[in-house]
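Second attempt. The first submission of LPS-assembly protein LptD had a stray character pasted in from the spreadsheet, which I only caught after the job came back as garbage. Lesson logged: always re-copy from the clean sequence file. Corrected sequence (755 aa) follows.
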Amino acid sequence: MSGWFGVGVDAKRLIWLASAAWCWSAGAHAQDLQNRPVAPPPPEASPAPAPANEQIVDFSADSLEYLNATDTVVASGDVRMFREGNRLRADKVTWNRQTGEVRAEGDVAVTNPQGDVAYGDSVQLTDTLRDGVVDNLLVVLQSGGRLAAERGTRQGNLYTLEDAAYTACSVVDSNGCPKQPSWKITAVRVVYDTQKQRVFYKGARLHLFGLSLLPLPLLSNPTGDQGGTGVLVPDIQFSRVNGLELTVPYYIKLAPNRDLTITPHIYSDVLPAIEAQYRALTSKGAYQVSGMVTESRKLPAELNPGANASDRDIRGYLDASGRFQLDPKWDISGSLRVTTDRTFLRRYDISRDDRLRSTIRAERIDTDSYFSLTGWATQTLRINDPQGQQPIALPELDYRHRFNDPLLGGRVELQLNTLAIGRTDGQDTQRAFASFKWDLRRLTPWGQEVTFTAFARGDVYHSDENLLSPTLIYRGNPGWESRAIGALAVDVRWPLIGPVGSNGTQRITPRVQLVATPPIRNLDIPNEDARAIELEDSNLFALNRFPGYDRFEDGARITYGVDYALTLPGISVDANIGQSYRLSDRPALFPDGVGLTDKLSDIVGRTTVRFRDFVSLTHRYRLDKDNLAVRRNEIDATIGSRQTYLLLGYLRLNRDIDTSIEDLRDREEIRVGGRVQIGRFWSAFGSAIVDLTDRQEDPFSTADGYQPIRHRLGIAYEDDCLEMGLTWRRDYQDTGDARRGNTFLLRLSFKNLGR
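This time the job returned cleanly.
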């Protein structure tokens, strides 16, 4: 039987349980967290037109009875009620019109518009139709968590759950059979305050894998996903330098868009430290400011410092960053990273960066133009690297504009750039240039792709204190210098594509490039940004093979090579190889050992092999043109699946470059990492970095040919609601008071648990 219930004023309030469902959804869970045999009420099959009286509820039932003697309405037999997205299902609903009591009985299930489902054996409401009692309550949240209680009551703004429990874990295994959740929180009583929007637990205790572990006497959590003030999950770590470390973050919600986290660090062997992070989200962007401060002794930043530390000093760091989108085209971003000394970040396990860069930038980007105004400064943390030699750029301006050539066709790009670099105890350089670049791409009737390029640039430089630059070839002449740059290039590719077998294809693409540039006064110009030069596959066909603006390759050259691609079911191979030949007799600008010194360059190439999603191998190399000796050998490999995999990396630079050029020193290292799935939820992981450089490769190296840098080993557990792990890490290098030794980290994270 279905229809419009004429006593809808009070029937509407039966939907009180739906509102209670989401109010209790952030609370706790009853002791019976398992699924109930009753299905949640389905959506209304064919909603009736909205009634004129908003207090009327659409319902259906097998039978409807009115008891005149008691003035009671009884709906029974698969009773379903619908109103404004709220749905109720029960075996029986009784409304006493004299007492105002409304009771739903028998496999009661209520779904609210948010998708949370509340189950109960019976629901009883008082005549206020706000306060009431639910027996054997279970609420399954749309977000995946669930709470349950032996009994739930509401009085005014307070909801009270007796003998309750909460979990965010699944309660069935992969076969659909019931199982204990990985963790749950039980409590003698749970109180939810609707005004404070917070749930408070009394007598709470954490259960892990069915074992009762930690009491949580002051546990509370906010409702919803907005967060709230309170203590976060602590971290525990042990290291040789600082001893046992306990961090207890305290989160303060200042506003819906602002928060502050204060984290005391308590150590067994050194004085405590305090860390703080402030975050804010505005209508234009977001920013954060964090830092840490303590008082401790420190040693000089040397590989083998003396035994005597300095007196205690105030030590710390500051880290701030932000980005603001002013409009669809303009944005401002910046970062600030500074520390009091060179070993603080490593000693307190914050970062292993050897340089800290602070920046400020304003950018404008649209379809055909780009503008940026940038300033940056660097703080070095490297051993024997003078801070006075570190550059401070203020400002760096870059503007680019692209448009179509209305005369010959093609694409034109104009660029304006200025840079001012200062040092407190080093060379100062200012630079400005304007450039023009024209590209025209055409396809011949035979399928060749031909690209014509014309390039012109004019530079003006000023520098002083040039003698303070430690590397002679980077200094340039002091005072004002200028130069003009011009280049013409033709690049021809000829893709040849054909089948391999019945399901494969291959592509062979020969490529030839001719570049001509008149003599350029390069060595008269300071070199600030084009130092790390080396011939490799990525810059073989570049118009200028220097990485920056301060050096430009002159003379005439021809570059040739071939690209190869093979595609088979489950297998792909991409490779290239090439070489260049200088046509002019002008002395080489490049240092010995970078592969470009002689007229005939070294041979460079890259090969990438992929087998399904299981194997990925990339090999980059440079071969000596005279004896095919390997001057650069770089291998990166990934083998395995998402659950079990091995990462391998190897690099050897055997260039024999002058040791006075610090940016181009030789080195050799191997990197390995991996993870092994040893069960459905358990895995073991590890990684290591080993320095294989010896004195023959780099006379300044302290390694002996096999010097571990660091390694880590650990075991982890992760399921749908819990992450935990134990990690052992060992450092093998001493730098000041950042000493070698072991560090142990215990990590525990509960997913979907409000804080």
